[in-house]
Predict the structure.
Amino acid sequence: MGAVAGLVAAGVLGRLMSSLLYGVSSLDPLAYVAALAATIGAATLAAYLPARRAAKIDPMNTLRAE
């Protein structure tokens, strides 16, 4: 949901900032796909690494410690 909202906002803001873009049009689909893929990849990695670490912990040892 956030990715779709971000794409819509980027489309609107891209037109406003078109004078600042060099060599890329304000509606370049490749640039949008690359930015979206990088953002989703970073979010996935940021969620996966702590979840993998937490999955290795034995729940019974954790419950006994607290």
User: Anything to note?
Assistant: The chain has a mean pLDDT of 84.
